[in-house]
User: Fold this.
Amino acid sequence: MSGLHHVTAIAGKASQNFDFYTGTLGLRLVKKTVNFDDPGTYHLYYGDERGQPGTILTFFPWQDAAPGRGGTGFTHQTAFKIPLSAFGYWTHRFVEKGVRHEPLEKRFGESVLAFTDPDGTRLALIGVAGVEATEGWSSNEVPAEHAIRALHSVILLLDDAALTAAVLIDALGFAEVDRDGAIIRYRTQSADKGAVIDIHQAKGFPAGHLGRGSVHHIAFRAVDDAAQAAMARKLSDEHHLHPTPQINRKYFRSIYFREPGGVLFEIATDAPGFDVDEPRESLGHALQLPVEYEPARADIEKALPPLGTAA
Assistant:
């Protein structure tokens, strides 16, 4: 199993981030925890009802983070799947909510509605035929028939596509399937969520800068530890890259590496999932901490800003 597991970006104000993704976009907060490397800030996970791999967009909300700058070596856009019939609903909603968005466009023959969140994170909704047959999360804000279903793709903005493409194809299970101008499309046939990576090759374009509104890393799926280890061996032996040792992130186990174009990649296991520490019906309601931070729970909760109530 390959494809996207999740995408992690940097936000500013936590409550603003929560309101936009659960309210305006109608996603479910499936996990409210902390950055395991910086427990003074949240790590917020948004996705579908079950928090399935391939539906998850996560954020580190650092309120004082300076704005990021788009450019090569970064993810340029993160896109979600919606039903083809939902564009009228979403266009009206974006106007009503004051969401900055672009006119509807075509990319690889698909309709694309590009927009940005309050921190400037570049996002898009892409209409996919047949996706209405899959279950959508029905929030108090967005009816199930119009709901976002899953991740569709990310666009990587790179100076040169070749070495990154080799990693996608040889180690991560993708294949080149199409080209549209300067954008090259890669797809995995082993996943129905987050199955697409687009590379926009922009030779000579300035490099990006990490900050508020930029993507920190993108994570790919491994069905289990053995599959992850096999990917790591390929990365090391055939591409001379250096993945980290496996790190336990409680909801999945991860390795990280910097791909040749400069984007931070993660490979995360499907198991154990987001219901390992709370029932599915109450995902995202309570602050969940790794065991090592439980003794400091009172201090951590005091330092974190308040959020709204998860649906």
Q: What stands out?
A: The longest strand covers residues 38-47. Residues 4-303 form a domain with the 2,3-Dihydroxybiphenyl 1,2-Dioxygenase; domain 1 fold (CATH 3.10.180.10).
